[in-house]
Design a protein that fits this description.
Layout: H1 2-16, H2 19-32, H3 45-75, H4 78-82, H5 87-117, H6 122-145, H7 153-176
């Protein structure tokens, strides 16, 4: 199962990083706007660099979180623990973890690709960064309301710091492309 998951992840990465697709999408964007597309309407190159850098950092953390979640059941031996539970529950946990891990990985990859390969599409970049900010804000709020690892303060603090850091790496770029 682990090998199948990695193969599916690799296929997804290849499918989303096809350079011909990027060229066609950027050409369509330029044609749609009459070839007059400003670079996200950012005020200067420093803002553009900040936007791209923070988005890439946030995307990398998001993708790494997804990959980590694909490996967690095997790294921490969850599967033998689930053997005593009903088969449907075990499959449900596996499916939820697989879907969550793949989703986070794909979201992270797109968070890297949009500010680099699709830099001319202001609307897509704006919507994407606000969406990712909302996603990570939800995770921060969930950690506050339903804390994970409250009995282990260093782990709880580390998780919270990671969630807030990722949230900020999307909040600043969202502001940069919005105002």
């Amino acid at each position: 199962k682990y090998i199948l998951r990695l193969c599916f992840l690799f296929y997804t990465l290849l499918a989303t990083t096809n350079s011909k697709s990027f060229a066609l999408l950027n050409a369509n964007i330029e044609n749609h706007h009459g070839g007059n597309v400003n670079r996200l309407y950012l005020k200067n190159d420093r803002e553009l660099l900040a936007y791209q850098t923070l988005s890439i950092i946030g995307g990398s953390i998001t993708a790494a979180t997804g990959i980590w979640h694909l490996a967690i059941p095997y790294l921490y031996g969850w599967m033998p623990e689930l053997d005593r539970d009903p088969e449907e529950l075990k499959r449900g946990v596996e499916a939820t973890n697989l879907f969550m891990g793949l989703s986070m990985t794909i979201l992270g990859i797109w968070s890297i690709l949009l500010p680099t390969s699709f830099i001319k599409n202001l609307r897509a970049n704006r919507v994407w960064t606000w969406t990712m900010f909302g996603l990570w804000t939800t995770r921060v709020v969930f950690q506050i309301v339903y804390p994970q690892f409250r009995d282990n303060p260093p782990l709880y603090g580390g998780l919270m710091a990671g969630f807030v850091t990722t949230q900020v790496t999307f909040f600043v770029p969202a502001l940069l492309v919005s105002f």
